[in-house]
UniProtKB/TrEMBL annotation:
Coiled-coil segments on the chain, per record: none
Membrane topology: Multi-pass membrane protein
Protein name: Mitochondrial carrier protein
Keywords on record: Membrane, Mitochondrion, Repeat, Transmembrane, Transmembrane helix, Transport
Organism, as annotated: Aplanochytrium stocchinoi
């Protein structure tokens, strides 16, 4: 029970630290995926800085910042629970088991992430302040609720993009934990550390970076699909279909924003996994 509380707390701290650093990268990546007229991440960065200022990079920040405290704690807690289940059932630790536990946590987390990213993406796509449709997360949710036929219809619309999110996060988070685990094993061997707690911080950061790299190598195509599902204008009573979106995309559309995804994902994962590891170890041994 105590370890579960520690997982929740350390995951929350790690998630908020990650979002504070990485949100501008999310803004640029989302714009690149939805606006073909942009020439690349540098062009996107310059235009946001010139026409929207520093706050342009932090549009839609509140919802994911608060949510990070929730869904990073969910990821780490569910992953720890899945590992406990494996141990009870005498499933030996292995790369496959590590991936599977991560995939379970990613799948559960998808149901929290999807509505948060819908709100974030809709706010991010507002470029001209004079033409803003939504004043913030609460305003967007209120308008969506008022335009829905029923509570069930509102929930359905809030979960636009769920199929792509489940695929992205189940496999992606599986690789995230697998990369970190492999990195930790190598770090212990290289540094001669007897325990994970004694691994030097720079090796923890490298291990976390490997997790971030593997996550985005798998997840980026599905992230591009999800972004389109959540940002395309569709009639009120219809939903963008996964396969229709896939068929409408050109090969290069599946890797749009890869520079930003990796540029954000690698240091983001390094920050998240390292902060969680350090905070959790401190709590356990305090």
């Amino acid at each position: 029970m105590k370890d579960a509380r520690y997982q929740v707390f350390s995951g929350s701290i790690a998630g908020m630290a990650n979002q504070s650093v990485c949100h501008p990268f999310d803004t640029i990546r989302t714009r690149l995926q939805m606006k073909p007229e942009l020439k690349g991440p540098i062009d996107c960065f310059i235009k946001i800085a010139r026409f929207e200022g520093i706050f342009g990079f932090y549009k839609g920040f509140t919802a994911p910042f608060v949510a990070q405290a929730v869904y990073k704690s969910v990821i780490f807690s569910v992953n720890a629970f899945a590992k406990d289940v494996c141990e009870v059932n005498k499933i030996k630790p292995s790369p496959l088991a590590t991936f599977a536990c991560g995939a379970v946590s990613g799948t559960v987390n998808s149901f929290i992430v999807t509505p948060v990213e819908l709100v974030r993406n809709q706010l991010m796509m507002q470029i001209n302040d004079s033409k803003k449709k939504y004043n913030g997360p609460r305003h967007f949710i209120l308008l969506l609720y008022k335009s829905s036929d029923s509570t069930l219809d509102f929930v359905r619309r809030m979960y636009r993009g769920l199929p792509a999110t489940i695929i992205r996060d189940s496999g992606g988070v599986g690789f995230w934990f697998l990369g970190f685990s492999l990195g930790i094993s190598k770090a212990m061997s290289v540094s001669g550390s007897a325990t994970e707690a004694s691994i030097p911080m720079y090796l923890l950061m490298i291990s976390g970076s490997l997790g971030g790299l593997l996550f985005w190598c798998f997840a980026l195509p599905f992230d591009c699909i999800k972004t389109r599902m959540q940002c395309l204008n569709v009639p009120q009573h219809s939903q963008p279909k996964f396969l229709q979106i896939v068929r409408s995309m050109k090969p290069r559309d599946f890797i749009k924003g890869w520079q930003v995804a990796l540029g954000r994902g690698i240091p983001g994962a390094a920050t998240t996994l390292t902060v969680h590891h350090l905070v959790f170890e401190r709590l356990v041994h305090s």
